[in-house]
Amino acid sequence: MRALALQTSDIVATGVQRAVYLHPFDSSKLIKVLRPAATRPRRTNFNGIMDRLLPSTRVRQIRKEYAEYMRVMLNHPNADFHAPIAHMFGFTPTTEGLGCITERVMRRDGQIGETLGAKATAGTLTQADIALLNDTIARIYAHDIRASDMKPNNFVFGQRHYGSDLGPEECVLVDGFGDIHAIPVRSMGRWSNRMGLDDSCARLARNTGLDWDPQDRQFALPRQAAWMPARHGL
Asked: Fewer Cβ atoms within 10 A, N terminus or C terminus of the chain?
């Protein structure tokens, strides 16, 4: 199989472990490629130390991600199942290394969808965005999805491809699913996963400035502080 030619100009996101590229000829997909060890920042936390001592742990997250995707999809084989996580389409050789093909969530103009983190930082989150986020969170709980790394930038707002058409606006968890912890507590049972999800959502609220209701398991835009004067004439 000929390796897909990837260009650095097509990088749309860069994480600690992987770089994300536009697919060279399929606008509905992205390709995640493991970054060379020499190009990654040196981390002094537990994960960084494990990367250096046990290089095989670098691919552990990828294995866990695919295992979780397969578990979720095989448990919901019905045609109308609407996954709150990005679809995955296997591996392919690329000029930058082995690539993982994944779904692209995009805006109506064809650009990559905006992340929850970007919207929170810019202060552009709307009630409609929160409704989409809450719908995704509800489905993560309902389908018992093990999402161990629910960072703000792992949630993307946009549309998915359905054949030649684009679907409705939604919020999709595009990365960070799978029980990636050294001790797979979330895989012990539905109860332990829900405890982990509760903790992840509370952390997500802190990192985005949103309010989190642990009883209803729903997010909300923060209320205006009572001491702040009302703004008129705007």
From this structure: C
